[in-house]
Each structure stands twice: as structure tokens, then as C-alpha cells.
Design a protein that fits this description.
The structure is a homodimer of 199-residue chains. With 199 residues, the first copy, chain A, is of the alpha/beta class. Helices cover 41% and strands 13% of the residues of chain A. Chain A has two domains: 49 residues, RecR Domain 1 (Helicase, Ruva Protein, domain 3, Orthogonal Bundle), CATH 1.10.8; 129 residues, Dna Topoisomerase Vi A Subunit, Chain: A, domain 2.
């Protein structure tokens, strides 16, 4: 027997299809939406449609934007000779928050992951190569995550970029600030030792 | 500086307004919705609107339904002399899942909670009294949660129902099946002792 009316059941299913949302949470969210006034439900629905309709990838860096170029690519004050390659728009935001980087970005929208059937063709690699071919780029910083898939992707890209006259760098590995040596894993500690710098 | 385009930011805000969804999760969900094909986003948006539009409370028991009467109230095989009072439609479902109860329900849509500014007037108490006044009900089972607010609500209702010729009962307190005496709290154990029954 269905315990809920069909439209409610459908809304629960929709919430359940989101990543990290289980059945109980989906129920809770659906009930909450139902309990809200009509305008709120309408605002939610139109936010979904608006975002889906107006958001697309930047022509240059593949970041998400509602214009042809994203705010970073269209900012004339940024250093156009450096490109930081990230796998996800959220990583771009993490780097922007440091206020330490003034170059441009390139968003791959994923990493090479044979286990999830993601090959280089599904990533925005051709767009990156085209930017390098167009010239004007002197350094590419690989800022994919420091995990096997991120490392593989960075390695793969650096091979592809070998024929071009461009410096390819990788974010430093090491102990996070505020971290404890005692609780650091062996690999991180090994990398921190390897990457040691004169004081 | 805004890191996201405005429509995306709005969608993140919408997700963030849901209970138990923080900023990071809201971002993750919004990005997921954006990454889905157009039809999926549309299905999500219309599920919200449909549910909000078509779901309302049952004329008799205040359960959520898309018809005038909920499936339980319109089921002629159910025992109409017993009414189980729950605070939330989800509690009704929990009881239905036992397949042990064949009576009707009454959904209060909340419990009396002075701390959250919820008084008896905000609950569907008048509807319950009207059902009792209409006659034909011999027992009312208080199935609010066994916490201070649920207990208060059950107590308050039982006082209100005193003038009527109706038996008012409360769900049994005790050790949950599969539980351990060792890990039971004192109050539960006291209630389990008080409620002991001949074997």
C-alpha cells in the first residue's frame, strides 16, 4: 500500500534522487516543502528552472556562468598568462577565497576515473589545449585534488602539454596548517619531507 | 565578490532554506541539479508545484491527501470506533507499517510546545473534538511521541476528552524490542517496571 498521495510520493522520489539524500531525509524535505506557503514552493520551483535554463559553461574557461564569459575571464585586471586547472567549479571558489591567486582558471568538470567510466573525452581537455595553442599562457597550475584520480588527471594533462612551451606546476603537498604530525598519514608526511624548503 | 552566477546562488539559497541542509550541502545539491538534463530539472520543479497544489489535509482526520478523504478514512474495512491520535503524518505511516492497527487516525500536525510558540490553537484539536461529538468513537489512542511535549499534548487532550464517553489510552512505554537493560535510561526502565504485565 502507498502511504502517501501520489504527488507527495513523487516529490519524495525527486528529493531522493539527489546525491546524499536518503529516503527519510527526502520525506522530511518533501513534508517541509508542502508545509510552506504557496509562494515559497513556487520560488523553489522557479529557482530550479531559472538556474537550469540560464547557467551554462564559460566559453573560455568552462566555469559556470549566465553570460558568455564568466566574471573571472571577463575581468581585465587578472593575469592572463597563468591558468589554474581545477576539476570542479567548487574548487575554483575554494581558490578564489584565498584572495592569493590572480590568474585565470580552467574547469575540467571531472577527473579521469576509469572506475566511474570517465575518460579524457568527457572532460574539457580540448578546450584547455585550444587555449594553450592560442598562445599567451606561460604557466599552468594543476590544482586537481591530491588523490589517485586527481593525480592521474594532472599527470595526463602534463604529458599532453609537453609539446607546448608552457610551464606546468602542481599544488604543493604537505601537512595542512594547524594539522598534527602525529595524526598525519604516511603518504602526506613523505610528501611533506620530499617537498621541504629552506627556512 | 559573488563567486556564482545569480540564478545558481538563488538555487543554493533555496536548498539552504530546507531543514537540515547547510551551505555546503546546498551547493552540492544545486550543482547536481544544474548538471542534470533539462527534463530532470523540469520534473523536479513540477513535482514541487504539483505536490504543493494538490496535497491538502483530509476533511476527517487531517492526514495529507489529494482527495477529499484520505485513503484510510475512505476505506470501509477499517474500524471506525477507534481513533489513533498522532502528531505528524510520518507517525501515521510508522503505525501503518506495523499492519497491526485497523482503526482510524487523527493527525494533529504538531504538538503543544510553548518553547516553539505552538499552542493548542495551532493544532487540529477542534477537528478531533468535533469527531468525538459526532459520536461513534469508543476509544482514542494517544500516540504522540514519548517526550515532554508529546506527553503534555496527550495529557491536555485527555483532559479535554473527559466530558465525553470515550476511553482514552496511551501507547505503552518500555524497553524497545532488541534493546539492552544495561543501556536503557532510568526513566524508560522505571516506566517498563511500572507497566509490567503478567507472563
Amino acid at each position: 500500500m502507498k502511504y502517501f498521495a501520489a504527488p507527495l510520493e513523487k516529490l519524495v522520489e525527486q528529493f531522493e534522487s539527489l546525491p546524499g539524500i536518503g529516503h527519510k531525509t527526502a520525506q522530511r524535505l518533501a513534508f517541509f516543502v508542502i508545509s510552506q506557503p504557496e509562494e515559497k514552493a513556487q520560488a523553489f520551483a522557479s529557482a530550479i528552472l531559472d538556474a537550469k535554463k540560464s547557467i551554462h559553461t564559460c566559453k573560455t574557461c568552462c566555469n559556470l556562468t549566465e553570460d558568455e564569459l564568466c566574471p573571472i575571464c571577463s575581468d581585465t585586471k587578472r593575469d592572463t598568462t597563468t591558468v589554474c586547472v581545477v576539476s570542479d567549479p567548487k574548487d575554483l571558489i575554494a581558490i578564489e577565497r584565498t584572495h592569493e591567486y590572480n590568474g585565470l582558471y580552467h574547469v575540467l568538470h571531472g577527473v579521469i576515473s576509469p572506475l566511474s567510466n570517465v575518460g579524457p573525452d568527457q572532460l574539457r581537455i580540448n578546450e584547455l589545449l585550444q587555449r594553450v595553442r592560442n598562445g599567451g599562457i606561460s604557466e599552468i597550475i594543476m590544482a586537481t585534488n591530491p588523490d589517485p584520480e586527481g593525480d592521474t588527471t594532472a599527470m595526463f594533462l602534463s604529458r599532453l602539454l609537453e609539446p607546448f612551451e608552457v610551464k606546468v606546476t602542481r599544488l604543493a603537498y604537505g601537512i595542512p596548517v594547524g594539522g598534527h604530525l602525529e595524526f598525519s598519514d604516511q603518504v602526506t608526511l613523505t610528501r611533506a619531507l620530499e617537498g621541504r624548503r629552506p627556512l
